[in-house]
């Protein structure tokens, strides 16, 4: 069974970023703007922030293109 927990995804992102081979890092749609407060909104936003931090925090440098 696949483990899709945020901790696992963060660890996987950090592993890839540590290779020093990442040229582009993108995370799309971490926040759903519906104009109203809905359950899960805070969790979704916090999870997205963790994923952004994992990628940018472990980005060593941009390799030559």
Describe the sheet with the most strands. none
Say how many strands there are: 0
Helix content: 40-55%
Which band does the percent of strand residues land in?
under 5%
- Roughly how many Å is the radius of gyration? 14 Å
Instruction: Outline the low-pLDDT stretches.
Output: none
Topology order in helix (H) and strand (E) letters: HH
Question: Given the helix and strand composition, which structural class is it?
Answer: mainly alpha
How many helices does DSSP assign?
2
First and last CA, distance? 37 Å
> Please, what is the oligomeric state?
single chain
State the shape: globular
> How much is the average pLDDT?
81
Structural commentary:
By secondary structure, the chain is mainly alpha-helical. 3% of the residues are buried. The mean pLDDT is 81. The protein has helices at 6-17, 41-57. The chain contains two helices and no strands. Helix 1 (6-17) runs parallel beside helix 2.
Features:
single chain, 65 residues, mainly alpha, globular
Write the layout of secondary structure elements.
Layout (H helix, E strand, L loop, with lengths): L5 H12 L23 H17 L8
Helix pairs in contact: 1-2
In short:
The protein is mostly helical and 65 residues long. It is 45% helix and 0% strand.
